[in-house]
Specification:
Number of helices: 6
Shape: globular
Structural class: alpha/beta
Number of strands: 6
Order of helices and strands: EHHEEEHEHEHH
Largest sheet: 6 strands, mixed
Length: 175
């Protein structure tokens, strides 16, 4: 069996990759959330999904590139991350993932920014808290300017253009 990347643009064709992600939910949660958002939103630029099969014939990595955000690099060996750019139609505008994976991917995208590095933090002690007054509500287009300012402040200008509009359209932002 050959190793390498398999890419699909239909989320329903991503079953093999999704199974891999579901086997490691804690470290691949951003990819699973993006996959869910893509399924709910439909339309827009075509998303891209992929899974990497190692030399032993088993799936060892996956990525999700939704139309509304950066390329999300999931768990994968660094050699899989370094091989991925040759399968893509040009370097993405932004990418995120574990530091070693991001660095390996970036090493094959000369002239592009390194991207965001993600860290996984483990909660060791849960502290009780009091419930705040009020309730959550779905964000609307009237909230766009506020959410855009918050997004810019949090990402310090390194976020994905149009991320707020895309997430408003998909209905997964709440205030």
């Amino acid at each position: 069996m050959s190793s390498g990347w398999t890419l699909v643009s239909d989320p329903d064709g991503f079953v093999v990759g999704e199974e891999f992600l579901l086997g490691r939910v804690a470290t691949n949660l951003p990819l699973l959330i993006a996959l869910s958002a893509v399924r709910r939103s439909g339309g827009g630029a075509p998303p891209l999904f992929g899974w990497w099969t190692g030399p032993e014939g088993t799936v060892g990595g996956a990525f999700v590139r939704p139309s509304f955000g950066p390329l999300l690099l999931g768990d994968m060996p660094v050699e899989a991350a370094a091989a991925l750019p040759e399968y893509l139609d040009g370097a993405p505008h932004a990418w995120e993932g574990r530091s070693d994976v991001v660095e390996a991917f970036a090493s094959e995208c000369p002239g592009q920014p390194v991207g965001h590095r993600s860290r996984l933090h483990r909660l060791e002690t849960l502290q009780p808290y009091s419930t705040p007054d009020g309730f959550a509500r779905p964000a609307t287009s009237a909230d766009h300017d506020l959410l855009d300012r918050w997004y810019e402040a949090v990402t310090r200008g390194h976020g994905s253009p149009g991320a707020v509009a895309g997430r408003l359209a998909s209905g997964d932002l709440h205030l």
